[in-house]
Design a protein that fits this description.
Length: 252
């Protein structure tokens, strides 16, 4: 069977397996430093221990709840602000550069300020994830609405649609693909900052677990937790794709 004939998921899994096999071999041969990179087999064998001894599932639920709260806030507030900036041109011209600067800024470094405002709790983590993910959603929403073809808008005008009908029946459906790109980027930024802040303030969730394991120099456990975070991210984005298909029936 040709590689091109394999389903993308199977090809991806085979690629990952091949990479891990090469790393395992290089570690056995001494080409890689075992004090820096653990054996992939040890990493995979750490999952049972993490679930049994480190309460990995409970930590996932905490980080997942924080990520869900931040994601909902980012999606609702970000898209709403983007629509507002699209409709009010002077406001868009005045604030768009600042929004772009906020999207590029390392928000995670501002965690001491958030700690002062909200304290050392889950609210700080959610707030930082929310602020970090807001910029990309706003910018992509504005870009999506401004990029709607004039011919589609003219069709709505020819049917005497009200501004509200024009938005819900033409602008929003046409802009949905780009808006969802912004939502994905916002979720990436939010999740990165969530894990990062948990690590920095050593408070709950998967980030704290990575910090604890690193302080104990448990490299297989650290790498296993990071792999687990990646798997959670993949599941999150798979769910988001399903939501996008629900909003866009033509893509099913």
């Amino acid at each position: 069977m040709k590689l091109s004939a394999l389903p993308p998921q199977v090809f991806g899994l085979l690629t990952v397996a091949l990479f891990l096999g090469i790393v395992e071999l290089l570690l056995m041969l001494g080409a890689l430093n075992q004090f820096v990179i653990p054996f992939p087999s040890d990493v995979l064998g750490s999952f049972d221990r993490l679930f049994a001894e480190e309460q990995l599932l409970n930590r996932l639920m905490l980080t997942g709840a924080e990520a869900l709260a931040a994601s909902v806030l980012v999606s609702i507030v970000g898209v709403s602000i983007g629509v507002l900036l699209y409709k009010v041109r002077i406001l868009r011209l005045a604030t768009e550069p600042w929004v772009a600067a906020m999207a590029a800024a390392p928000i995670v470094l501002a965690y001491p300020l958030f700690l002062v405002m909200f304290g050392r709790n889950a609210v700080t983590i959610v707030a930082m994830g929310f602020v970090a993910g807001l910029g990309p959603v706003i910018l992509k929403t504005v870009e999506a609405l401004r990029g709607v073809r004039k011919s589609l808008v003219n069709v709505g005008l020819s049917y005497n649609l009200s501004p509200s009908q024009q938005f819900w029946k033409i602008l929003l459906p046409a802009a949905a693909p780009t808006i969802f790109v912004g939502v994905r980027l916002g979720l990436i930024f939010a999740l990165i900052n969530l894990i990062g802040v948990e690590f920095l303030i050593n408070f709950g969730g998967l980030g704290q677990l990575i910090n604890d394991l690193a302080e104990r120099y448990d490299l297989p456990g650290v790498f296993a937790t990071i792999v687990f975070v990646v798997l959670v991210s993949v599941a999150l984005f798979a769910g988001l794709e399903r939501v996008e298909r629900w909003f866009r029936p033509g893509r099913r």
